[in-house]
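Team,

Forwarding the record for the chain on the shared tracking sheet. I've put the sequence and predicted structure together so nobody has to dig through attachments.
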Amino acid sequence: MSLFDHPDAKAFILHWGEMGTQWGVNRSVAQVHAMLYLSDRPLPADEITDTLTLARSNVSTALKELTGYGIVRRVHVEGDRRDHFVGETDLWEMLIRITQERKRREIDPTIQLMGELAERLRNDPSAPPHVRERIVRMNEFIGTLGNWYEQVRSLPKSTLVTLMKLGAKVARFIPGSGKQEG
């Protein structure tokens, strides 16, 4: 029996594919991820291809991308020469790996460029002051965000879970963070 045979599993896989496009992830990649996340056993690429009715090249590309993120891994199944794949099922581990890879691909190059631009603008008297001020401010903001991410990433999962559950209540531990009157 295929995962796609159960209507709720099928709905999850299809929805995950749609949500993936909203997050900038190819629909096929997101659907393959969802299928491997739900699967209770390693799956060969041809079964994924057949179940999701995707081109073999799409599945191959998706598996390469997901393996690169570290949320899918290749495994050997005894007695079968084909490669099989399993998805990460620890949601925190999945979140950490996806965030880490997205930061590496998207944020780190921006931090580098902003730093270079800010440095050049600090020494460029011909630059319009408002451009200099805004780029320097963006550089500081993104740098602070990157530093915050690195600090939070090093926290134990149990601490991250507690922080998430605290939500806005965490502000009560910060001096002077009481509600401001509007």
